[in-house]
Amino acid sequence: MSNPKTMYYASVGPLLNMFDVDVDGAQLRERGAVTLPANIQYAWPHPSRRYLYVVSSDGGPGVPGVKHFANALAIDPATGDLRPHGEPAPLPSRPIHASLDRGGSYLLTAYNDPSWLTVHRIGSDGVIGEPVIQDPDLDTGIYAHQILATPSNRCVVLVTRGNNSTANKPEDPGAIKTFALDDGKLRNLASIAPGKGFGFGPRHLDFHPTKPWVFVSIERQNKLYVYELDEATGLSREPIFIKETLSNPKTAASQGAGAIHVHANGKFVYLTNRTFPARDGGREVSQGGEDNLAVYALDQTSGEPKPIQHIDGCGVQLRTFGIDASGRVVVATSIMPMLRSDGMVARRNDRVSHRRGRHARSGAEIRCRSRNVAAILERNGRPALMPGSEIRISRRNAD
Question: How confident is the model at residue 354 (pLDDT cuts 50, 70, 90)?
């Protein structure tokens, strides 16, 4: 497809909102939405950029749900508009992540509860086909959170986060599970789990575009691990570098590292830091927490990442972010408005709005919105927020 239109898609509940992208001004202009059969969990484009694959579910954290689907959408190359492409494919449980292999022949889907994966064939017409039956003895770890094919397309990587210990339950170990991929069938290769997975809670990873380096966001320990690709095991058994993700690693706030992406030029890595509630089930922000985008410059010889910036994300709980195809704009999204311990609304540069209700002090009605903040990526890799760059999306039909 020559000169494809650059679009930004953002989900809220079952709605997939469509935006035109002004790269020079770092602006997003909303101009419509499509509705999926259930709340959107993740989306991934076909290598041809002619189709978008979206997994959806009516489940959520602690809620199994009963409706789970993989959906194919055709992309209009002139406008970026989306339309259904074939029938939704049923899935066994709530999907947490999905991607395509490097050739666009298979839809790879990860599930966290129970931790599992599926592989669906993709037809030459882009329609989702039948699932490929997998060996029931595949080692899929505890709490899968991401699934990707390696650059060679001979291996699939499943990132399994594990879980922190609680008052009633010991820690569940995390691991990066690797599998050989052959005609849609997966075969166990290795379990990459430093310390047998205890004190190791990976969330997401990304690959360098030209070097054999793999960058892993370690959610539960707020670390950035760097591995090397390995033909025998998928990834090296041990990391070659370990770096902090927080500007203040000694903070007492409840934190977790989030999404991670390598810039297309291979010179920078971006990773989100997220503040969790101060107590389980609450919406009060842990004091002293960081909700920011961490930027690392990469040594082009060794792959060592050097932190060069922590830029405020203008929101709480930076769930995800993306970089446009030109590599000039990054868009970060926060999802969890909360109250501070003093009863005031948690804000970042006065850009955060809130769940519908009444402000405790002013009595003014407030709404919950998710928001996207766009920033220009300067030549040194550092994001620079643009005036008026905040884009707010009403959280209709979503919690």
Answer: very low
